[in-house]
Amino acid sequence: MSGLRQEIRLPGMIAMAAGGMIAAWQVEIKYWFEVAGAGAAFSLLFCAILVLPLCFIYSEMTSMMPYAGGQNIWISNAFGWNIGFVACWLIMLLYVMAMPTVAFGISSMLGYIFPITSMQTKIVAAIILVLWYFLTNFELKILTKLQNLFFWSTLVIAVVADIIFICSGHWSFDNLDWFPNGMSGCAAAVGLLIMKFVGFDLIPQLSEEANFPKKDLWKAFVLSLACTVLVYGLAVVAVGGIVSLEWIAETDIVDPRVADIIGLHGLGYVIVIMGILTCITTISSFWLSASRILYGAAKQHQMTGRLAVLNKNGQPKLANLIVGIFAMYFTIFAPEAWVNYMYTIYGLAAGGVYLLVALSFLKIRKEHPEWERPYRVRAGTLMGVIAILFCIWVLYTNALGMTPGAWVVFVVYAAVGVLLWAFAKSQQKRHPKEWAPVVINPDTVKREEASKLDL
User: Fold this and answer.
1) How many angstroms separate the CA atoms of 155 and 250, rounded?
2) Across-strand partners of 310?
3) What does the DSSP 8-state code read for residue 156?
4) Cα–Cα distance, 155 to 115 (Å, whole number)
5) Helix (H, G, I), strand (E, B) or coil at 210
6) Total-model pTM
7) Average pLDDT over residues 111-120
8) DSSP state of 213
9) Are 60 and 376 in contact (CB under 8 A)?
10) Range 85-105 average pLDDT
């Protein structure tokens, strides 16, 4: 259907997805403890269990429609071009908002090694983004190799560090403060921590470039989710058994400082370096996926067709540039308060996208049973219902947590989306042939391939 090259193998796909989910927890873990204490480990596990039905739904939908653009295309098939545009814009919000977390995460981690000002942090982040922009325009296999190296190294180092903490002699099960805010805090954390699992949904954006059987896509979803739970859950238990909630609330970066407490300053340096590499994998995962969302939107004439133009390496060059501009803006100009807004905005957008996907899954199953599904989830209706109920809970908990500042950011972003939608609708009237609404699905792809053969 396109010139995108199939260069991502299963380990690389797992690294891409998990790399998007696992990022800068040494800094963010403070927030988890504030909400649910050591019970955050249970909240993360419960959240992952509730995300599993979504993973299976995504596996079937991706195997049936493995096209760059992912959720936008599925939702467009179920509810039309306009609702697909809404989903596309919400997904972009999820991906571009990851950039400021990378900057602030790098800032906190570099501060462990040497003092660094806010301006210096932004300069470092900008240099990384510029470098990554050029990398995104090379063949994807180069980025995949880097992603594999960074992610699997991170996984090993993170697990080994936590085992060292637990076996250090300073760790005590009695020190774990499980539910300081009661079970209500743990339940709220289940909805709020959905942000830490935004990443499994990167797989549909890259599925067109997968170089392994579509029936095995579910393995990428489930294994990336499992890696994320392992790293986060073990980190909560490992540090929570050594330090108090008060100490965690007052420190700047948790894991390396815990290494100092047990007398392993060198381990602290290793954790910091690993954390920076983790942030880089996050940039890679979200950048690639954001450019594919724009690419898919262009193919459906929801945005300018120039976003679907590929360079000689098979990369969407203008889409990569637009993502780079977004990333640079949010990293350099986003206010410090942005980090405080992020969890709830992320959760609200994720809940909305996932709800639309679950509804689309049920609708398309009913209306298009004839479409081939290399992977078909068992008990599909039950999985769909569980996913819908979970998404409603996510929307409810995050809407309650939204501050006035967060609502302003969300509304402004939505207003920009409305302007882009209005532009596309105006172009449909001015250039009806070039901008005629398109909805990509197995039927349209077959017709396109047949017409090419006729030519």
Assistant:
1) 27
2) 316
3) H
4) 27
5) strand
6) 0.81
7) 76
8) -
9) yes
10) 79
* 8-state DSSP, 8: B
Report which of 300, 335, 296 is spatially closest to residue 316, judged by C-alpha positions.
Answer: 296
How far CA 401 is from CA of 262, 345, 404, 440, in Å, comes to 36, 9, 10, 36
Return left, alpha or beta for 251; rule: phi > 0 is left, psi -120 to 50 is alpha, else beta: beta
Of the two residues 335 and 44, the one the predictor is more confident about is: 44
Query: Angle of helix 98-113 relative to helix 317-333, nearest 10 degrees?
Result: 60
Q: How confident is the model at residue 101 (pLDDT cuts 50, 70, 90)?
A: low
Beta carbons within 8 Å of 313's beta carbon, 6+ residues apart: 137, 138, 139, 140
d(CA 374, CA 258): 47
Cα separation, 238 vs 231, in Å, equals 10
**Token digits for 292?**
């594919």
CA atoms of 291 and 305, how far apart (whole Å)? 13
Q: Which two structure tokens, joined as six digits, stand for 29? A: 């873990």
Q: How far apart are CA 301 and CA 82, in angstroms?
A: 11
Q: How far apart are CA 412 and CA 326, in angstroms?
A: 15
What's the N-to-C CA distance of the chain in angstroms?
15
Rounded-to-integer distance, Cα 243 and Cα 176, Å? 9
**CA separation for the pair 13, 406 (Å, rounded):** 32
Tokens of 73: 């295309």
Taking alpha carbons only, the member of 401, 357, 365 closest to residue 381 is: 365
